[in-house]
Amino acid sequence: MKAIIIVTALACIAASGANVTVSTNVRYQTIIGYGCATYLPPQNTPELRQEVFEELANEFGVNRMRLEPPGQNTTTERRWEWLNDDGDPEHINWGGLNTARLDEVVMTYILPLKAAVEANGEKFNLYVSPSFYDGGSSGAAPAWQRYSVGECCEYAMSLLLYLRDRHGVTADYYCVLNEPSNNNPWTAPVIQPIIKALAPMMAAAGLPTRIEYPESISIDTGWNSFVNASSVRDDTQMWSHVGILTWHLYGGQGSRANMRNYAVARGIPTGQTEYMSLTTTHLYDEMTVGDVSVWEIYGIGSQLDTSGANYNRFVRTGWYWPFRQVLHYARPGSVRVGTTCDDSQLRVIAFVRGGRSVVALINDLDSTARTANLSGLVPGSYGVCRSVNKGTYAELGLQTVGTNGLLSVDVPGNAVLTVYPHPGSNMPPVAVDWKASNAYLTQPSSSTTLSAAARDPELDSISYVWSVKTNPPGASVNLATPNAASCGASGLTVAGRYAFNVAISDPTHTINREVRIDVYAGNRPPAVELHNRIPVLLTLPQSSTTLRAFAWDMEGAGVAYQWSVASQPGGAAAQLSAPSSANSDVSGMTVAGEYVFRCTATAGGQTVTNELVVPVYPADQAPVISNAVASPATLYMPESATQLAAVTADADGDVLSHWWTVKTAPSGTNVVFSRPGSNCTMVAGLTAPGTYTFTLTLVDRNAYATRDVSVNVLLPEPAAAMVVGVVCMLALRRAGARC
Fold first, then answer.
1. What is the three-class DSSP state of 94?
2. What CATH number is attached to the domain comprising 684?
3. Distances from the Cα of 567 to the Cαs of 73, 613, 725, in angstroms?
């Protein structure tokens, strides 16, 4: 072990530089985790995806994932529930759900990251967050989900139960809707009853899942519309089910402290869960003002570039290295503690983890180098590392903090420096880069340069040994300098995939990394993905939508597109507005049925074709509630239950879904429906005098209707009301109600 510096008591430590005090007795939030979403470019190889998840879990620090359920109409994906599964919100028809696509997402993203996180002895954290953007690729929520609390709950339960029972994954949180009120009509009054209905269902199914709310587009929108609004702020029943208060950063951020204070008062953590242009300023503000326990990068590609030619290797990008200075060391369970600094240009975040201090010094507001004089550290052995100008991190060796808790470190400008606990035993080297100089080769090219780099926490010497792991039959690969960090590789003369192993060693440990490179016989064709939007799901008289194509060409050549109508229902005359563009509006889809659109993409002399099926559904008439009554409609205490029944129909013969809700009830009552998803249900818990109003919502595939029924509960009187109730029920049955 090298570079150990003993720090003695420094009586004059405050004489120069920035003075930083760490107060371990002042405690704030506990870190739950750091997250990302479930997406990587489809052209990424399985080997690269596995490598990405291991890097995210082991080095970058991610232990949380956001699952957005299948929610589009593309060449490879359709919504989890494209049409209503069976019209009964209390029953899941698994055959009506897109389980195959969800299986693919879980096995491709969730299970590999979960395994990598748990291999580190940490808890994997998952939340489910569906999106319905009226003008986006997800499209608007279908009527039966938008207007029926029951169907929305069934949608949620089907996802949560399938994850648990099919894949052994239990979601920690469920968000009713990602970014409510952003390009969708989902307001707080829409979401509140869903939360209050869904939470008991989850508990009854043995799910520990809590509600993530509001997942708003901005902090200010979350505060003004979903937290501090009069209808929400004091809704104790709803808040009893909320497990975390979350927001995105697209918009006003002036209410960050208000959100934190409200969450603290409610005893729930906070989280920042999406922003596409994150910097260390966002990280600092969220940690120290928002007191977030969850912090997310959202897209994996924002920090690990696997796009384009990097389909089989990743390149660290964005703010990967500065973010790692915090995320890698302040692991789940770390508690943020108080700090003060007499230099406002030096921002400090400190934690206690395992009884030891973690301090991140963020000195990137300017290019001025600063000496930070730290006090209040927990005594022990510490590593010191830094990232300068967003570059690859460097280890600076070990330092020992004595019983005085003092340490002085030099922090360059435009840098993030971290003081982190060292375990005492020798740590393995950290691989920071491994790649071939070419992302791929096209014959006759047959050579490349392999390179690797690593850092060692103790500054021990590092050695590199290259070997050929796999190559196509017939190839004879030569490694020029196999015992060096950089090694020429030649003889890649046969088309196919080559893989090389680099063993990276310090005197105590060896780690291995794999470098892959493909050799192609010629130019590769592009890959093309298709989807439609605005709207995604068409019902006549809607007769137009927008087709979108995205093609990826590995060689980076320009792509030419050509759309055409491959097939359409008889009598239809679909018209493409821009058939030679990537995006084209299509109109004239005036006949119900399936329309198949073909897109040909050409790049570098290579052509590929893909097709997209866009269904158009017949015009829809709203369902009808012809009658609805309570039997009896008047109760005399101590009677506390009655029957609600309705006669419903749909002229188109669509699947109908019913859901009863409480519109108004006397304070303090706990009303319970026996079958809220039926046209007939018993309702109990009418235990206080007054008027109770119940609403039946009836939805088909594209429209809805509602009807209110009132029940009066009076103080005890002779039971004449029972006769009236029987007469009403007989009349309803003659009208067609089946109870």
1. helix
2. 2.60.40.10
3. 17, 9, 57
